[in-house]
């Protein structure tokens, strides 16, 4: 049996799950429904004997999150392609197909979003196996989820013939329906939810683009030809990629192609497309009393059909007399919305962005290739940060014009360079970095190094930095 | 004209305004509606030529908050009486009357809660003036607020004669009415809201207790006889005070006394008795579009009749599609409730208390006589605190068994004792306090001293402290 190369699309920004999902660290990387991130769960679901190592498509901002999360999950990818700019799924999928075709045009690719929930990985794997024969025969295979409710938030796939046959040719794509149409389709039995998962050979997909969206071929070929390798990433060239239209694979190719088949998938699936889906998902695990889904830090008093969620370990959430509502609290932002307005959460992001609130797109915690940091307090002329450095990682060699820094190691051991002096600083030791000194912090150890940094100075912006040397090739 | 001694009652715990008001720092001390706290605003309203310096009644937990806030407001009190235990208003008011009577039984006392809003202080002062003659003639004068709506949340005062005459004898107290009764009383014109504000001579109040609640006299006398002076506070003796019943002045005396008069007050007044009152209050300042009251960190999208409030400078609040709701977010707790459930917010406090959540009663910021501190982050074996010390203040001389401390001064100057060494540590300097060292931190300067403390150790509880010496007489 041919093995299948999973292609994980993970460049999205998930604004409908704000404030837990933000552009700087979107939902696919967050542990939304368990200990693993959705991205990790997706990568693990598509690993094992059925699959070759995955190809990941992401953007420059997420590249270190991707490598860190794959390493955590114990997965070695076949490659990580960096899109120079988000242009929706059409160029990304074509880039994957062209990239793979250079080695083996008959290789099978399974394109999947990295933010869906599919609890039964083995059942999904058997569905993939059903698709292999038609895919090898030149069909593009799409996976249709058997609907369990008259959902108006998804597109549908209309199958040829009576319901139940799988794989079966696809008759047509159906746009998100109104409630009545959704009801009719649910009863008809030959309409499935379009999950945006596709199985095909590299050759078939390239041919499909050639037939239906040929304008993508040359620019994406060029992006691959001029790609640069950088710390294990394959960075697609920005030109002419950036001139490509923002287009989904459905619009560009699938809705026009005649060689589509559908594999029916009847097990549980969710796209976690909004907080209402998260709420529904939690109830599918365990029916909730009066429809209340509340975590250990949330208290519902006389509430019905509510999601109460606290994503900060020191944040209590209390709802009193609420009906059909969602409350999501993080360290720095709270969303309260009518459950029926779940799709409008992106309006919150737009509104916050328009008035310059950081919370629209980024978190207090900032992920970097070497680890992460967060501001604990920002004062008049001081700032306190917690800095966590991965084992073996190093920050850039740098200096500041406006600030001095006190470093206190509270876990692990740091190797610290200050001008021409190098010292080991371990738990409960501190070191002072005077204003202007050229300095670097490294973790030479085997466990994460945690350090408290107290900055003092009149200007404490992240841009007061002169970098002399950086192992992560940042300018 | 006789001057009036304001008696500020400020021992309450304000649970209906949780999470901004908590037992450890209740609403009267919080800047709920402006820069000043309600307590400060109340003290200032009752200062000036009409009034003598105030007498404050509070409890031991709030004593340093009271002195700090009075000092900030530039007010020197006549005395601060510490109640050994909260026993409602009856014993507190009797203690004030007996205390004042020892110097001058004919002195006029104006008892007022310290958590009400009365924007027009001069109008209120004129109302007080109207009450002076009857009070000197032996009447107990109560102040009735002219009702502006059929409120069911307040008690009422029924005045003798037709509406509009002031002062006028009181016919009777009316318990919180149902909606229909409230409507009838609003139309009748001779019913006023009971604001819990009273003017009387010390002698009259003592006589009223002797006539209607004589069982209070001996225990309260004893509490005063055995009171101790401590750093300027008069601490009432705990026995037999603690055996007193928990009773309001209304129940103990007012509802039985026949010598009551009412002064009508027609200007704006609010008891800020719940978040619905805060919401209403904000609209009385400036009518809100679609009833939305939102602060600078809150965003309302398609909301009607909502209060959206963020009490943390780094917290964004977004409401989508909400109607008749209140959302109050702080650094560590979020309340979301139907506006009609404002009185049930105390249930939130009860629920959190029953499962041991700190947020039920206390804040991250902990006020102490020397200033305050807050935990910025609590880690596996470390904790980072921000500590602010008032000019001239000093922490106790202490040592710890389980932790070492790194101190970095980020504002002002500290005088630091570590064992037998005393040093001045100023901005951008640090000092290390080894485990077991006897140490003290003082602010010898003229500006607040701000210090970042990084603790390391296996146990970091506040109770790992041996105190050798404390200027605030804490054990």
UniProtKB/TrEMBL annotation, chains A, B:
Domain MannoseP isomerase/GMP-like beta-helix: 299-352
Keyword field: GTP-binding, Isomerase, Nucleotide-binding, Nucleotidyltransferase, Transferase
GO biological process, one term: polysaccharide biosynthetic process
The Mannose-6-phosphate isomerase type II C-terminal domain, residue ranges: 359-470
Gene3D superfamilies in UniProt: Jelly Rolls (2.60.120.10), Spore Coat Polysaccharide Biosynthesis Protein SpsA, Chain A (3.90.550.10)
Domain (Nucleotidyl transferase) ranges: 6-284
Protein name (Swiss-Prot/TrEMBL): mannose-1-phosphate guanylyltransferase
Organism the protein comes from: Paracoccus alkenifer
MF-aspect GO terms: GTP binding; isomerase activity; mannose-1-phosphate guanylyltransferase (GTP) activity
The organism's place on the tree of life at top rank: Bacteria
UniProt-listed NCBIfam families: GMP_PMI
Enzyme Commission number(s) from the entry: 2.7.7.13
Alphabetical list of SUPFAM superfamilies matching this protein: Nucleotide-diphospho-sugar transferases (SSF53448), RmlC-like cupins (SSF51182)
Pfam families: ManC_GMP_beta-helix, MannoseP_isomer, NTP_transferase
CDD domains in the cross-refs: cupin_PMI_typeII_C (cd02213), GDP-M1P_Guanylyltransferase (cd02509)
Family of this protein: Belongs to the mannose-6-phosphate isomerase type 2 family.
């Amino acid at each position: 049996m041919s093995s299948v190369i999973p292609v994980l699309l993970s460049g999205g920004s998930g604004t409908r799950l704000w404030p837990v999902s933000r552009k700087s660290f979107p939902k696919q990387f967050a542990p939304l429904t368990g200990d693993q991130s959705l991205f990790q769960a997706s990568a693990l679901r598509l690993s094992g004997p059925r699959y070759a190592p995955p190809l990941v498509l992401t953007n420059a901002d997420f590249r270190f999150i991707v490598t860190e999360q794959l390493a955590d999950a114990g997965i070695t990818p076949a490659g990580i392609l960096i899109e120079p700019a988000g242009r929706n799924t059409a160029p990304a999928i074509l880039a994957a197909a062209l990239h793979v075709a250079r080695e083996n045009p008959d290789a099978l690719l399974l394109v999947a979003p990295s933010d869906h929930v599919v609890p039964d990985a083995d059942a999904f794997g058997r569905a993939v196996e059903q698709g292999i024969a038609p895919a090898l025969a030149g069909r593009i295979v799409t996976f249709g989820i058997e609907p369990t409710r008259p959902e108006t938030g998804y597109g549908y796939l209309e199958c040829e013939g009576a319901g139940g046959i799988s794989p079966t040719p696809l008759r047509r794509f159906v746009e998100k329906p109104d409630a009545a149409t959704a009801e009719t389709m649910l009863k008809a039995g030959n309409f499935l939810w379009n999950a945006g998962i596709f199985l095909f050979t590299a050759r078939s997909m390239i041919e499909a683009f050639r037939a239906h969206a040929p304008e993508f071929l040359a620019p994406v070929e060029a992006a691959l030809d001029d790609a640069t390798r950088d710390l294990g990433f394959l960075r697609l060239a920005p030109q002419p990629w950036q001139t490509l239209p923002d287009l989904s694979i459905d619009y560009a190719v699938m809705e026009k192609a005649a060689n589509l088949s559908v594999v029916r998938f009847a097990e549980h699936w969710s796209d976690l497309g909004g907080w209402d889906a998260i709420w529904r998902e939690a109830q599918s695990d365990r029916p909730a009393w009066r429809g209340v889904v509340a975590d250990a830090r949330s208290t519902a008093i006389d509430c019905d059909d509510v999601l109460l969620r606290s994503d900060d370990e020191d944040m209590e959430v209390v709802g009193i007399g609420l009906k059909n509502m969602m409350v999501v609290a993080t360290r720095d932002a709270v969303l309260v919305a009518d459950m029926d307005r779940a799709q409008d959460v992106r309006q919150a992001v737009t509104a916050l962005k328009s008035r310059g609130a950081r919370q629209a797109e980024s978190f207090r915690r900032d992920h970097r290739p070497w680890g992460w940091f967060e501001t604990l307090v920002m004062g008049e002329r001081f700032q306190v940060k917690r800095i966590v450095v991965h084992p073996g990682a190093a920050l850039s060699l740098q200096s500041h014009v406006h600030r001095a820094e006190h470093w206190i190691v509270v876990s692990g051991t740091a190797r610290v360079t200050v001008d021409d002096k190098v010292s080991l600083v371990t738990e409960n030791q501190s070191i002072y970095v005077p204003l202007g000194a050229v300095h670097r912090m490294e973790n030479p150890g085997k466990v994460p190094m945690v350090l408290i940094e107290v900055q003092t100075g009149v200007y404490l912006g992240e841009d007061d930095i002169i970098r002399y040397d950086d192992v992560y090739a940042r300018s």
